[in-house]
Amino acid sequence: MKKNSGFTLLEILITTALIALVMAIGVPSMSEFIKNDRLATQINTLVGHLALARSAAVSRHQSVIVCASNDQASCSSTDWADGWIVFVDVDASGAFSAGDELLRVQQPLGGGNTLVSDAGAVVTYDNRGFAPNSTGSFKLCDERGTAHMKSITISNTGRVRQGGGASCT
């Protein structure tokens, strides 16, 4: 008598049910993980660019500006979610112009996230690394709202610290 090899219908149904159960538990968790990771990455990128600007201002003894930019070539936006640029303001004009040195360019934020600031659309570090006219907070939010918000605050001395925002607006 020849023995059949293969799976029975019962074995296939049990395996399919186990795969469906693992997927039902894992996919929503992965979605939350991706959203949390995106928020952390985006706020850390902003913090890194602000730290770069402050360090460059001190080391070069010149003003360095971080400003919202929707074309990644000028301070052309008031919405930080459009992206931003970091540049050495060689001519002290307060805007990116010929002769200024572009240090970093940030593309628009992904995932439909919003980044709002009560410090305005420009953060300026003077030659001492201070940001006296750029104090305030940045709030980064996604569609989940304030419960998952990431925020940073810039002080007069140019120091950036986590926290400081109460809502996403």
User: Could you name the CATH class?
Assistant: Alpha Beta
Strand content: 15-25%
Instruction: State the strand order across the main sheet.
Output: 3-2-1-5
Which homologous superfamily in CATH is the superfamily? minor pseudopilin epsh domain
SSE order in H/E notation? HEEEEEEEE
CATH fold category name: minor pseudopilin epsh fold
Level-2 CATH architecture = 3-Layer(bab) Sandwich
What's the structural domain tally?
1
Description:
This protein is of the alpha+beta class and 169 residues long. The protein has one helix and eight strands; from the N terminus they run αββββββββ. The chain has a four-stranded antiparallel beta sheet with strand order 3-2-1-5, with helices on one face. Strands 4-6-7-8 form a four-stranded antiparallel beta sheet, with helices on one face. The model has no long low-confidence stretch (mean pLDDT 90).
Key terms:
single chain; 169 residues; alpha+beta; minor pseudopilin epsh fold; four-stranded antiparallel beta sheet
Task: Set out the fold topology.
Blueprint: H1 9-60, E1 64-68, E2 84-88, E3 101-106, E4 114-117, E5 122-125, E6 136-141, E7 150-154, E8 160-162
Antiparallel strand pairs: 1-2, 1-5, 2-3, 4-6, 6-7, 7-8
